[in-house]
Structure prediction request, 201 residues.
Amino acid sequence: MDRKSLIKKFDKQAEKYDKRRKNDQLYKFRQRIFPEAEGKVLEVAIGSGLNFPCYNSNIELTGVDFSSEMLKTAQHAAKDYPFSTTLIQQDVETMEFAENSFDTIISSTSLCAYQQPVAVLNNFQKWCKPEGKILLLEHGISTSKFWAGVQKFVDPLSVKVVGCHQNRNISDIVKKSDLKLVREERYLAGFLYLIWAQPCQ
Prediction:
């Protein structure tokens, strides 16, 4: 799928994502990992700001998304939270930050949409300070053979309809990148990945 079509699909979903902030089925999992964000924080594919309720008040947040409609909802939501927020409309796969710019980098349910997810994680390695942390909440291939089979079957349709891969092995993607995988937890039949990583020294 070309990038313009993908952006349009996410633009159309902005209102739905905005409503999920108050009734997000993944909230308890977000709350398990993202309160660990500290210092200067980069959240890629920030969407409508679903992670805002999890962040501590003293962080300095930079959010990136290629969808203007998602960023509009995030900008509105940010007014309800005490931390400093800067939002940038840019494609994470093509943008650049200076090396060692952030203390924490956050990604949630975004690795499904990248054309080159390993390359994106390698950028996290560059953008994150050596002593920093990378926190990921992602969906991918299940540990259940049955559900993994279903995911593989529906993947082409999912990519076409919502621009999202269902069958990616997030653990393998992280291991193929330049990051050091520190800890991993799996939930919901292994469909949901919580990953704590850091730049390799």
Summary: The two ends are 36 Å apart (CA to CA).
